[in-house]
């Protein structure tokens, strides 16, 4: 410790002073031999007395110095403890009133720092708890919003996208196709003889069929495609960046999968078929027009009914051509 070094130095100074006194006394004693006998005796007596007084007083001087330095050393150690974060440390010093007042002030400061630190830690804990609570609420809110958003765009019965969402997506995909001259295909799907399912087995079985057919179709389309419930037993698939031939291949895969699928219901296993109408926009229209989307949907629906008219369980194609090109 710094104060220990200072005490050691002070002690060294006192010892050095004692050595100097003794040396001086020795020299003086030596020089006394040149004086008269009576004078020498007197001087020797004085020197001896001075040395004895110095030797006797030296421990008292050291003790007095130590008494002054010790409280300062204790205060210094206390300050070091506080600097390391050990707040609340108190000192008990038995010294003069000035030192005791200093110790009392030190203790008050230390206790005040401890109280402030504890209050700060409590505040930090409260803030951290509030932060965690807010984070949990935000997470719960985000999950709720996600569920609400999913509910808003999902058909409640089947889990497919609802008509409002699918129409919005068709508009966006069609706008992209027009802007970049890209193909876009739409597949309209209708369950054959679905009315017979409801009439013969009840609406519960009909609902089970609708749920399962969405699962079958969802597993058969590509990740870039979107499946939605268009209404009743009609469904629609949006196939971006897909030309007519690719769309026909996709539609045929859907038809074949459903045709082979054993639909499990509370009534038992049912065999179902679907009819599909395909329409493709070739991406060559110069500007987006609101009637274009309606035309494509009408044509896809028309192709689906053509497939039904041909005996059902079929795919009927159609290629959209601009009116100007068709009349030229």
Q: How is the topology of this model organized?
A:
Blueprint: H1 2-31, H2 37-83, H3 97-153, H4 163-180, E1 184-191, H5 194-201, H6 203-220, E2 226-231, E3 234-240, H7 244-260, E4 262-264, E5 269-271, E6 274-281, H8 290-309, E7 315-316, H9 323-327
Parallel strand pairs: 6-7
Antiparallel strand pairs: 1-3, 1-6, 2-3, 4-5
Helix pairs in contact: 1-2, 2-3, 5-6, 6-7
Question: Quick summary of this structure?
Answer:
The protein has 328 residues and is α+β, with helices and mostly antiparallel strands.
Largest sheet entry: 5 strands, mixed
User: Going across the major beta sheet, what is the strand order?
Assistant: 2-3-1-6-7
> What quaternary form is this?
single chain
Q: Determine and state the CATH class of the largest domain.
A: Alpha Beta
Keywords:
328 residues, alpha+beta, 2 domains, two-stranded antiparallel ribbon, 11% strand, disordered C terminus
Explain the overall architecture.
With 328 residues, the protein is of the alpha+beta class. It has two domains: 2-86; 163-327, Alpha-Beta Plaits (2-Layer Sandwich). Helix content is 67%, strand content 11%. The chain has nine helices and seven strands, in the order H-H-H-H-E-H-H-E-E-H-E-E-E-H-E-H. It has helices spanning 2-31, 37-83, 97-153, 163-180, 194-201, 203-220, 244-260, 290-309, 323-327; strands spanning 184-191, 226-231, 234-240, 262-264, 269-271, 274-281, 315-316. The strands form two sheets. A five-stranded mixed beta sheet has the order 2-3-1-6-7, sandwiched between helices. Strands 4-5 form a two-stranded antiparallel sheet. A hairpin with a 2-residue loop joins strand 2 and strand 3 (234-240). The radius of gyration is 51 Å and the shape is rod-shaped. The relative contact order is 0.08. The model is unreliable at 324-328 (pLDDT under 50).
């Amino acid at each position: 410790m710094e104060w220990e070094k200072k005490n050691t130095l002070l002690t060294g100074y006192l010892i050095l002073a004692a050595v100097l006194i003794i040396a001086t006394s020795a020299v003086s004693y030596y020089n006394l031999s040149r004086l008269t006998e009576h004078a020498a005796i007197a001087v020797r007596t004085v020197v001896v007395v001075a040395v004895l007084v110095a030797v006797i007083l030296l421990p008292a001087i050291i003790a007095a110095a130590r008494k002054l330095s010790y409280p300062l050393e204790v205060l210094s150690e206390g300050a070091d403890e506080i600097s390391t974060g050990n707040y609340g440390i108190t000192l008990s010093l038995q010294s003069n009133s000035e030192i005791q007042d200093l110790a009392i002030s030190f203790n008050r400061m230390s206790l005040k720092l401890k109280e402030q630190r504890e209050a700060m830690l409590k505040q930090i804990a409260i803030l951290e708890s509030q932060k965690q609570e807010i984070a949990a609420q935000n997470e719960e809110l985000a999950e709720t919003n996600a569920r609400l958003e999913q509910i808003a765009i999902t058909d409640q019965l089947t889990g497919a996208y609802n008509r409002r969402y699918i129409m919005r997506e068709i508009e966006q995909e069609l706008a992209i196709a027009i802007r970049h001259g890209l193909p876009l295909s739409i597949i309209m799907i209708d369950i054959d003889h679905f009315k017979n399912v409801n009439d013969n087995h009840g609406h519960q079985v009909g609902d089970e069929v609708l749920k399962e057919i969405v699962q079958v179709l969802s597993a058969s389309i590509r990740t870039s495609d979107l499946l939605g419930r268009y209404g009743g037993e009609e469904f629609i698939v949006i196939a971006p960046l897909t030309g007519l031939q690719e769309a026909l291949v996709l539609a045929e895969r859907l038809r074949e999968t459903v045709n082979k699928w054993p639909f499990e219901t509370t009534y038992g296993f049912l065999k179902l078929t679907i009819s599909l109408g395909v329409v493709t926009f070739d991406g060559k229209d110069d500007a987006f027009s609101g009637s274009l989307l309606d035309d494509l949907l009408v044509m896809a629906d028309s192709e689906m009914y053509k497939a039904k008219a041909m005996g059902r369980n079929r795919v009927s194609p159609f290629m959209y051509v601009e009116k100007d090109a068709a009349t030229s």
